[in-house]
Amino acid sequence: MGPLVPEVIGSQLNFIVALIVGIGFGFVLEQAGFSTSKKLVGLFYGYDFTVLRVFFTAGVTAMLGVVALGHFGLLDVKLIYINPTFLWSAIVGGIIMGLGFVTGGFCPGTSVCAAAIGKIDGMIFVVGSFLGILAFAEGYPMFEGLYKAASWGNVQMFETLGISQSLFAFLITFIAVAAFWFTAGIERRVNHKTGKGFHLSKVYLGLTGLAIIIGLTAFVLPDKREYMLKELANSSFVSSFNIEEMTSDELAFRIIDNDKNLQIIDLRSQKDYDSLGLPQSTRFDLENLFEKDAYKLLSLKDKENVFIANNELTAKKGAILARELGYSNVKVLQGGFDQFRKDILGFVMPSGTINRNDVDTFRFRSSACNAIPVLMKENKLKHASGEKRQVKRVLGGC
Amino acid sequence: MSKSKYMNPYLAGIFLGLVLLATIYITGRGLGASGAVKSAVVASVETVAPSHTSNLKFYKEYGEEHPGNPLMNWLIFEMIGVVIGAFISGLISNRLKFTLEHAPGTSSKVRIVGALAGGAFFGFGAELGRGCTSGAALSGMAVMSTGGIITMIAIFGGAYAFAYFFRKLWLSYKGDY
């Protein structure tokens, strides 16, 4: 599951990735004609809309790719870097950049491309951007107020607009295609050209058709996550699954035994987990099971994953979800944590005669009743030293 | 040998989109450009006036966010790649040439001043707007960031708003079309 950094690709290798990505980036920009100001500023005067075409096609391709990878569970979109929104600095900064665009004829990335193929104007632009950044750095206290005003956090546009992600992606794609058509007309008029304007060749028609089919399937097939969560709310769906159970006694025994193959997935609330957390356990909400943290834990080989919750039903939901997500070796705690509490933590030796078969069980329970709270306390101290689980986004941005 | 033609813009856009998508899938972050220049600025100021960087707030905040050598930065490596990639592209399309490009109706001097001022505006704006056309607008659009999309609209909107005043710099290019 993506992103592959930092687990699959370490920070050193990531620099190599940066280099390779950069080569692709620079190559495509230069091939597209972004190493000349003539093409770059064309869209502002109506004679050449190449920039708009490349830019919007790239943005839409990458956006739809991110949506699709997230939809099919291949990329944990909670981890990717979402540029933070600071309303006023975004607007004022953007307008200043626009001024820079029409005076300098480049943007930072394209000026480097131009410089790389020997354009002296590109090199001068790079020097200029160096000076501009220096000016910002030196005068930072003056601009800090504007820079940090109206902080909205890492919000996404569809949240801001209050529409669904799919609808927003569709709108952007539609706007892009409409802009391609519209600007092709302007371009022809400005350049006094006659003949065909914006048209789709067979290849593009085919590609567009394919994209529309993929898009529609994504629309029709609900998001895996939403679908599963909905199914889990359905009791007949849940009861149709047969998940292996683990008894309180076995769980207690293996905790005391410090069984390294055992992984406890605790679905209780954070409060319950904090007050009575079992050793070797990790807390998740059902929704978290779709994320990369759960993937890292549950995809480990040769581990037995026991789901616990206050009641067995919730634990079973978690186990079903894990199994549906492709993880093997899942079990549930029989009777849930309530049963465990009754059997082990709050064990009271029954009075009266004891069935001979139960003697060993009760003996074990009464010793476990003392041993496990000690282990839980040790575990709590170990984790109190600040090992809080939280979603940590990748750092990025310019 | 004549210069090769440029790639079809839609095709180039798809390739660029795939590069960006691969970047997001592998690293969890998008592309960038001005950030590399920022790292270079910080590194230069650190070398020239080390005491200065430890005093001024901007450098302090940068240092907190990016511990270690400012040149050991993802975007620096990416931009080295951009230089290599653009150079290879220029080489195979026969476009490598030392030249100060300017529109037929514009003098070299005006072009030099324009490029320097434009770079300065863009650099300054990119710092204020937390990213340039690559890092904020394009990558922001890919992840549907509100801030990124607002910055994108502001960049293009601003450019259109100012375009009229700088038309003399560029309009003589129109004759080539």
Protein described:
- The complex is a heterodimer of chains A (398) and B (177).
- Chain A has helices spanning 11-32, 37-40, 42-45, 50-71, 87-104, 108-116, 120-138, 140-148, 157-161, 165-190, 202-220, 224-232, 235-239, 248-256, 270-275, 292-298, 312-324, 336-345, 359-384, and strands spanning 85-86, 151-153, 245-246, 262-266, 281-283, 304-308, 330-333.
- Chain A is an alpha/beta fold.
- The relative contact order of chain A is 0.09.
- Chain B folds into two domains: 1-98, no CATH class; 100-177, no CATH class.
- In chain B, 68% of the residues lie in helices and 0% in strands.
- Chain B contains nine helices and no strands.
- Chain B has helices at residues 9-27, 34-48, 50-55, 57-65, 74-92, 108-128, 133-142, 146-163, 167-170.
- In chain B, α7 crosses α8.
- Chain B is globular and about 50 Å long.
- The relative contact order of chain B is 0.12.
- Classes of the chains: A alpha/beta (398), B mainly alpha (177).
- At the A-B interface, α1, α2, α3, α4 and β1 of A face α1, α2, α4, α5 and α6 of B.
Most extensive interface: A-B, 140 and 128 residues
What order do the strands of the largest sheet of chain A run in, or round the barrel if closed?
Answer: 3-7-6-4-5
Q: In terms of per-residue confidence, which ranges of chain A show pLDDT below 50 for 5 or more consecutive residues?
A: none
- Give a short account of the largest sheet of chain B: none
| Bulk shape of chain A | elongated
Total number of beta strands of chain B: 0
How many domains make up the 3D coordinates of chain B?
2
Strand content of chain B: under 5%
Question: Could you list some keywords that capture this structure?
Answer:
heterodimer; A: 398 residues; alpha/beta; Oxidized Rhodanese, domain 1; 2 domains; five-stranded parallel sheet; two-stranded antiparallel sheet; elongated; B: 177 residues; mainly alpha; 68% helix; globular
